[in-house]
Write a sequence for this structure.
């Protein structure tokens, strides 16, 4: 029996003015990164806005990708197989951070660090891709060959350790979920299935 489990990275582009501003730093159309612990994307974590209508109130959040703010976003979904030990280590770290959620801040200055390739260190402060890369690194995994503070969302899309399962509207992935993708299964990939309104989905065989 396989001891591997799956971690999911979700890249989204909400199209808000704040999102477009961040794109100036990241040069990526999908410029928000989140980490998920289930294929249905019900347990998703990142650093972002705490209130949908206030981009300047940011920090560590558990995201509801079915909310109106995210649901119509463009997205890409990636899977990374890790050992059960690493999965538990990553999950435990995120839960510890959530237990002290109010301690953490959004590191907007860190985006300037990406632009100038500097480490602008602030205690308990992260931006989205910095957070995701840090969680992986704490388990000894580096999907992107950069220090976490220099990782952009677009870097994950080029990682050989990640398998892209879907690219298209987020609601298309969520609608396909009951039929198409299950977590913690052995992967055998077929040709991408095209859906006019649901994006490109790579199906996982049984």
């Amino acid at each position: 029996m396989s001891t591997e489990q799956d971690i999911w990275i979700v890249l989204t582009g909400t199209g808000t003015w704040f999102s477009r501003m961040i794109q100036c730093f990241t040069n990526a159309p999908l410029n928000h990164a989140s980490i998920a612990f289930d294929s249905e994307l019900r347990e998703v974590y990142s650093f972002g806005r705490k209130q949908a209508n206030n981009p300047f109130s940011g920090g560590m959040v558990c995201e509801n990708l079915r909310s109106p703010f995210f649901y119509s976003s463009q997205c890409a979904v990636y899977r990374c197989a890790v050992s059960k030990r690493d999965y538990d280590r990553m999950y435990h770290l995120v839960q510890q951070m959530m237990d002290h959620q109010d301690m953490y801040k959004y590191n907007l200055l860190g985006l300037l660090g990406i632009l100038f390739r500097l480490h602008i260190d602030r205690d308990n402060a992260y931006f989205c891709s910095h957070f995701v890369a840090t969680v992986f690194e704490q388990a000894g995994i580096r999907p992107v060959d950069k220090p976490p503070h220099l990782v952009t969302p677009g870097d994950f899309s080029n990682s050989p350790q990640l398998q892209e399962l879907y690219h298209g509207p987020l609601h298309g992935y969520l609608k396909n979920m009951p039929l198409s993708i299950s977590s913690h299964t052995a992967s055998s990939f077929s040709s991408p299935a095209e859906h006019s309104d649901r994006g490109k989905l790579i199906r996982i065989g049984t």
About this structure: Strands lie at 4-13, 32-36, 44-51, 54-63, 74-83, 105-106, 125-126, 163-169, 193-195, 199-201. The domain at 4-201 is CATH 3.90.1720 (endopeptidase fold (from Nostoc punctiforme)).
